[in-house]
């Protein structure tokens, strides 16, 4: 391992942000905190994106590793110890200065600090703790901090760090124990789940303390998140969703992130993905995750043992609706909020607006459009004052063939991201071949 | 004959116009609000009347909206008055006709066109404000002064200022709206205020400061190194961050695209 000590901050930043880029926990959301006189920064519950990188992903945090030196040899990871890459580490002082100066210029919403495991889990966790302490207490930084808990680190250290951070996460990386054994031999499921449980208990205990003493410092106020890699091992979508659901229910996680596997290492145990990263599959998992968190869906409603993978051609909500046509059409002027939420083309905002607007008189299709309902999708599933928008057959084949036409355009956009050319009347009238959507199973 | 009330392009100006039109008792269909200096062709068979800004009249309208409709409606009207829509004055007037009739529930009645118009303007201005809370870029000048230049479609400065006031309370900063030639000034630890700026002399200084700022170069490097080559997706990037914002962001200063 080549350890470089004498690098400039610029070189370190390049190496240590490049090494952190596969971590998708990029949001700065979850907690609203007002600014404080004399301190720098506040946080916004909705989160703020400060820029977007060339891959279209939001940049809201200074996402860096403390060090890319690591004692583990996880096959999928660019920082695995057997890789021959330049190794370096920041000092706590350097991290603080970068954060403060980037924040003052409004480049970032806060800091995301992860790390390879240097020497030992405790040693690394302590370095992270020292950095956060300095940032909060010496630099009076009041903005958002998301930090990684290092699996296997001393619970006391994790707790002390938790009181300084807004969000903590531990990456599950691979959803099943088998996958973990195969690709991350140094880690085990219990090593990851134990601190996850500890953070959950910390949050719960803190909630209780806050009720008793108003001034108690808050522990990980923006909650806990994790990340799973999609497509590195053989898990199907159903397994992924069940794991995510269990994490939301049993570990109170705020977010589960999904990261399409990008092969950065050559290794015989890693899958070859000739079509590039499984971006469409990642997209479907995010859509389904959204349905679980905001729309009251359960994983078992969306998928099952017999139908373990999402439909490539339809988003999970349309797919669900088509399999439950007996519940449709829904009368927009009468249906309750949760029923409206299950209509394809309607979201949380539009459902709320419908409820508020219809108190003052019936809504027609024109009004729904203004409210923000995507009628292209919704029209097959709703009536306004007893009438459908067009004469529509409530029949699976009929509706799906119409919906797929619209969805396919989007699928094509996701599947062929980055290939841009002028549309041509002759080439583009043909339906794109599904075989081109690498890594996606029907 | 129709009367067109020409009001000054400001929240107070529009509300003064509303007052003048309403109290003229000519009937709602016989009056219209327009903004001064729009350069529109004048309508035939119309009487044009200029309405000077009158703080007392504007305040009367504000009190009426707050008292007889709701605080929420007042916020909507205020925001709509900052909108980029050229006929915002008249749209506000039409909204208020319904508002004074229906009272507080008016803000939810999106099925009414006049209400929807205001809703849409507010949505547009809220979205732009939110995007700018992220896309504003400060350059550090001498004396730790942070300066930013923006070119928004809507007049968002007063909506943007409280966010940065809370966030950067201990810093001195300026946000300059290039399209309207006005700026928000915030001296450290003091309240912010609005000023009209005609002089562009400091734009040169800002450029120089930007060239010398080492953190700007660091951020450019950072932005580049965090994107994943295999996932390149400029359409997605453009959807989230329209090109018009990039002209003001140093990380795109070498052309609007990522190289």
UniProtKB/TrEMBL annotation, chain A:
Keywords: Iron, Iron-sulfur, Metal-binding, S-adenosyl-L-methionine. GO terms for molecular function: catalytic activity; iron-sulfur cluster binding; metal ion binding. InterPro entries: Aldolase_TIM (IPR013785), DNA_rSAM_put (IPR023874), Endo/Exo/Phosphatase_dom_1 (IPR051675), rSAM (IPR007197), rSAM_sf (IPR058240), RuvA_2-like (IPR010994). The keyword GTP-binding does not apply. SUPFAM superfamilies: Radical SAM enzymes, RuvA domain 2-like. This is DNA modification/repair radical SAM protein. It comes from Lacrimispora sp. BS-2.
Automatic annotation (TrEMBL), chain B:
Pfam families: DUF4130. Residues 87-251 form the DUF4130 domain. InterPro entries: DNA_repair_put, DUF4130. This is TIGR03915 family putative DNA repair protein. The lineage of its organism: Bacteria, Bacillati, Bacillota, Clostridia, Lachnospirales.
